[in-house]
Task: inverse folding
């Protein structure tokens, strides 16, 4: 009997302690701000001029690249904020104007964020938001202009307790892999030549209970941004009085990835699970994501932009957007020769990773022909004297029947398999050329 009483007392005391801690957290005073306004730099872009923006191509690229590529370059795939802090709570809010989620990719990957903590010894930890993030759709009136961007005024009041977003926003279109692209919704009010109604999603994340392990006064936090949407009105709040230090952009020559929807991040469930971000996390080395959904076409204009980046490695992974009838060899050869003309760093060309239902649907076997043609081109260029040219095969990527969502895009398992294959190849390259000094976590 006494033993049972002691057990009940211990349980009651534990519940009291937890309840007290919960009350203390509720009473935390928060300080809200725009990270860029207080010194944050955006990591993951290939141009220093973009350190204060959540986009992937400079404004000068508009008109140089096709409009679908330009629109997708406004998506924040591969971008992140890095800071050191001992805050016990973190709140985030921002707006997105594309689809919050897709049939084959959840809102947490399309429009969400992903938060990782690094201890002083380098160990990586993951931090989950309270239960689930909020994705609240609203409709707003914007001027009916021909421009892609337009000033917007919200028509509904915000009632969330998370950091409030600014009232003036910029509308952007997100191009999804095999989904409709328009963000304009039917208006429920009489039409006007001066305005149109668009959908905006207010996204809010609250990391309400952040604890620090013994011996850790603070963590270095890496916040990965949405893979398939454009971020506007980003607001952040930390505990008032906490330490907060922004980590500047990594100045090492980055791994630059040019590819398709798979490189952009379809269909990871969270931004940190996109294979490019997995490579960055594993190697602790900067990666620039220039994946463009449905638009990795080996275009000369994109190679010209790649040529502007002082890369440590270029990865070319475009075959999933190439048709068997395309004369892609000429484009790829010209692009490789352009990069080699100005850069001595390794260039890694990647096979089409294939379709995991190709044994039950023989029409899905066409990647084999594309891979043979691309491998033959790389072999010829090597013989012609182009050095530091490497190849990653489909067999090395090794997707299996459980690696894909719908036979086209990888799930988290497929993303991890691709990242593992890329990291393995990069380590081989690093041992040969001694240029990157790659380190695993």
Result:
């Amino acid at each position: 009997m006494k033993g049972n009483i002691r057990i009940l007392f211990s349980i009651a005391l534990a519940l009291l302690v937890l309840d007290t801690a919960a009350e203390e957290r509720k009473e935390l005073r928060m300080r809200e701000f725009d990270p860029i306004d207080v010194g944050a730099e955006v990591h993951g872009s290939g141009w220093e001029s973009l350190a204060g923006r959540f986009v992937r191509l400079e404004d000068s690229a508009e008109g140089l690249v096709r409009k679908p590529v330009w629109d997708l370059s406004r998506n924040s795939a591969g971008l992140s904020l890095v800071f050191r802090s001992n805050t016990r709570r973190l709140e985030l809010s921002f707006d997105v104007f594309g689809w919050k989620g897709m049939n084959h990719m959840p809102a947490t990957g399309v429009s969400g964020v992903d938060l990782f903590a690094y201890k002083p010894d380098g160990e990586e930890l993951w931090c989950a938001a309270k239960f689930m993030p909020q994705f609240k759709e609203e409709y707003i009136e914007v001027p009916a202009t021909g421009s892609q961007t337009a000033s917007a005024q919200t028509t509904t009041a915000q009632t969330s307790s998370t950091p409030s977003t600014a009232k003036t926003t910029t509308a952007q279109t997100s191009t999804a892999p095999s989904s409709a692209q328009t963000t304009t919704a039917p208006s429920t009010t009489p039409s006007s030549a001066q305005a149109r109604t668009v959908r905006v999603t207010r996204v809010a994340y609250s990391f309400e209970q952040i604890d620090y392990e013994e011996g850790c006064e603070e963590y270095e936090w890496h916040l990965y941004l949405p893979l398939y949407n454009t971020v506007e009105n980003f607001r952040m709040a930390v505990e008032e009085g906490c330490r907060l230090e922004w980590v500047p952009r990594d100045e090492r020559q980055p791994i630059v990835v040019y590819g398709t929807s798979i490189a952009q991040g379809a269909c990871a469930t969270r931004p940190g699970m996109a294979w490019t971000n997995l490579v960055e996390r594993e190697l602790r080395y900067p990666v620039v994501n220039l994946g463009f959904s449905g638009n990795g076409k080996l275009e000369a204009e994109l190679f010209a932009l790649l040529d502007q980046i002082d890369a440590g490695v270029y990865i070319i992974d475009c075959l999933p957007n190439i048709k068997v009838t395309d004369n892609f060899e000429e484009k790829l050869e010209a692009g490789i020769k352009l990069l080699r003309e100005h850069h001595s760093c390794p260039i890694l060309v990647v096979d089409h990773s294939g379709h995991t239902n190709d044994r039950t649907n023989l029409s899905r076997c066409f990647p084999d022909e594309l891979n043979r043609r691309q491998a033959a081109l790389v072999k010829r260029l090597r013989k012609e004297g182009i050095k530091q040219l490497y190849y990653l095969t489909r067999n090395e990527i090794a997707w299996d029947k459980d690696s894909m969502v719908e036979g086209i895009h990888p799930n988290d398992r497929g993303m991890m398999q691709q990242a593992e294959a890329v990291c393995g190849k990069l380590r081989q390259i690093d041992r040969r050329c001694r240029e990157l000094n790659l380190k695993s976590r």
Observations:
- The chain is about 25% helix and 20% strand.
- The CA atoms of residues 174 and 312 lie 29 Å apart.
- Residues 146-176, 178-192 have pLDDT under 50 and may be disordered.
